[in-house]
Write a structure and sequence with these properties.
alpha/beta, Spore Coat Polysaccharide Biosynthesis Protein SpsA, Chain A, Serine Threonine Protein Phosphatase 5, Tetratricopeptide repeat, 2 domains
């Protein structure tokens, strides 16, 4: 008989932390589970530690050769026999013995819930240090409508990977970890699952997220910030396509706005000098070309990004540099009153408002004339053509 829950525990160079993770699972009050220790050809003594647990529910799977973390995750999920899958790294742990029972009870009672999660408390040098505030989503337990949850999650990932238990059906319906998102794959997973299912949130912090030098995030930080930029944008562009397949226009629009916001943030970070996530204008243009499906889509994003760049220069009183970006934005999307207002006010400040507004009105007149001619031409066409 298959277990109800499968814990997938990836392990690479974490043998010294593996007992803490596995013991926290074995101590759960809900007992119907299996544990798959996914040893990704670890060079330490992971096999010996994995085989030391005196419990038939614990299985050791060793990859030969190393698959890499995403393929290792997917292999474990595909091997899972449980109806629910909990992916938790060997360096993290459950901090209460009843978390699994609470999750399973809620998800058994409501088949629309795709996954459950909770806040986490950081663990450093074996001691709890602080509540990770970004993982908190209110002080009351709740069940969120999936698409409303997507709208919030598009702003940035706040679901701690170690805290999430999902139906295996989610993976079978929406897909496994995408291999082209080495850092933000979990953000994509939580987004795509919520597009198809509701989400349960438990306000009590019932997991520990361990901060240490071997943690995945720490390793990416040491390698530079490029992966953060690339992955974050890839997640949003791909989600926009998935949302459009579901014909949810308002959510697709919000996703497009988040894409533009993220480009604007990267491109203007050199102005604010507050972030290492910098992107040149050339890199930004190339990224939009690579991701956008249609020219209209690319133009819409570029118009918003150019307005945002203009706003950043204006905030720093660099008005001469702001004006060309507003002008470029209007050439890409003429029907943006907010950008026109900023453009006019900035032109007034620079003393050439009359010229700027005449240029704008001339462009508007040409556009309106062209539209009128097109309407007239359409009315003269025979029916059915």
């Amino acid at each position: 008989m298959s277990p109800k829950v499968t814990f997938v525990v990836p392990c690479y160079k974490l043998a010294h932390l593996l007992p803490g993770c596995v013991d926290s699972i074995l101590s759960q009050t809900y007992r119907d589970f299996e544990i798959l220790i996914m040893d990704d050809c670890s060079p330490d003594n992971t096999p010996e530690v994995a085989q030391s647990f005196n419990d038939p529910r614990v299985r050791h799977i060793r990859n030969e050769p190393n698959l890499g973390h995403l393929r290792n995750y997917n292999k474990g999920i595909q091997m899972a026999r449980g109806q629910y899958v909990w992916l938790i790294s060997a360096d993290d742990r459950l901090r209460t013995p009843y978390i699994l029972e609470r999750y399973a009870t809620a998800m058994e009672a409501n088949p629309k819930i795709g996954y459950a999660f909770c806040p986490a408390i950081e663990l450093k040098n074996g001691c709890e240090t602080r509540l990770l505030q970004y993982s908190c989503h209110g002080d009351q337990d709740a069940i969120f409508d999936g698409r409303e949850f997507v709208a919030k999650l598009l702003n940035g990932n706040f679901v701690i990977a170690a805290s999430g238990m999902a139906r295996k059906e989610c993976y079978e319906k929406a897909g496994y970890f995408p291999l082209n998102m080495p850092y933000a794959g979990d953000w994509y997973i939580w987004l795509i699952f919520a597009l198809h299912f509701d989400v349960a949130y438990f306000a009590e912090p019932m997991v520990n997220y361990r901060a240490h030098e071997l943690a995945m995030t720490s390793q990416y930080m040491e390698q530079g910030h490029e992966v953060f930029k690339v992955d974050g944008l890839t997640v949003l562009w791909r989600m926009k396509q998935e949302i459009e397949k579901e014909k949810h226009a308002a959510l697709a629009r919000k996703c497009a706005e988040r894409i533009a916001d993220r480009y604007r943030y990267y491109v203007t970070s050199h102005i604010w000098k507050s972030s290492p996530h910098q992107m040149s204008l050339e890199e930004y243009e190339e990224s939009v070309d690579r991701h956008a499906i249609t020219e209209d889509e690319a133009t819409w994003v570029r118009a918003r990004v150019n307005t945002g760049i203009g706003d950043s220069y204006s905030a720093h009183r660099q008005f001469d540099q702001a004006l060309p970006f507003y002008r470029r934005a209007l050439s890409q999307d003429f029907w943006t009153p907010g950008t026109w207002a900023k453009y006019a006010l900035l032109s007034l400040r620079l003393g050439d408002v009359g010229l700027r507004i005449r240029e704008g009105l001339t462009g508007l007149k040409r556009m309106m004339t062209g539209a009128a001619k097109s309407d007239a031409l359409a009315q003269t066409k025979p029916a059915g053509n």
